[in-house]
Amino acid sequence: SVSAAFWKHLRRLGLQDFPCGLGSWSKSRFNARTSRRRGQPGLGADPARQEEAMLLGEESPEARMELLSDWHSPWALPPDCSPQDQHLREMAVLAPELIHGSKIFQVLRSLRIVDKGVEEVDEGLLQLEQLEELILSANHISRISSVNLPRMLKVLELCCNAVADLRDLCAQPPPELQHLGLGHNRLCDPLQDKYLTENFWPNLVSLDLSFNNFTDLLGLVSQLSSLQKLRVLVLQGNPLALIPTYRGFLVDSLPKLCILDDIRIGPDKRHQFHGLARQPELIRSEARVVVSVGEIKGVPDPSALQQLEVGSQAPVITYSYCVTYEF
């Protein structure tokens, strides 16, 4: 589950272990804060006592921060860790009491669980009430229930999973969601495009549906046209992207779109494709694919073979190759 992967990730960060967290290496500093909150002078008020405590085995916050930032340090973060992980580690040094125990749930704004074998998005996520970004790419998620998603969520990335049905995701979707990433999944029409409307995603600005199995361009556009705030749309990799008028029809049908796949839509593109939305008869259920072979490796180059002399009795060797494409 996502919760299990989350706790495993936190243990990997070592937020309660040296040089982070609360321990003998930071005890006096934490006691000083606590005493000041209670109206007592505290250890931090006496420089002499503070220096004495440092001599007894404590490390200054500056020194411990250096251990986190130095890539040669055994406590440095692995290269694949996110900026959020770095922020948590720094907070665990400078203000460990703020992320101690369940308090960490109120601090997290972004959670990235990528390629961890996650299959279930469980209700444990609801503890992260302030979560705004959830990245769950490259896992094994086939269904996701929106009732287990934090309500403050603005970014949900589910790229490279096994999602084939959006019904559970659209039961109680996060109302403020601005980006929904569903690229490289198993979605197809006509059953799934009905969930891609403003009724479910009123604030959606960016939508990635690339490399699924959508084939009905007209049906999909009729649903997407209700998304009044949609500005970025990615559909490449779907069978419908092979339709010759695919790009022009979308540009003319969704006048507020700013980016489609890999192109930015400017006034010139609008003018170029103007009127295509009123000609659906141009959309055919067939496509043309042009394949160009740029380079072939691992076979002899005929142009490099030595030319035979005129009148030579040596046998002539010919080469032929077959290239097969599977669609």
TrEMBL record:
The cellular component terms of Gene Ontology attached to this UniProt record, alphabetical and capped at eight, are: cytoplasm
Which Pfam families does this one have?
A: LRR_1 (PF00560)
**Keyword annotations:** Leucine-rich repeat, Repeat
Question: Is Repeat a UniProt keyword of this protein?
Answer: yes
Gene3D superfamilies in the cross-refs: Ribonuclease Inhibitor (3.80.10.10)
Which PROSITE patterns does this entry report, sorted A to Z? LRR (PS51450)
- Record has Repeat as a keyword: yes
From the Swiss-Prot or TrEMBL record, give the protein name.
LRC43 protein
Gene name on record?
Lrrc43
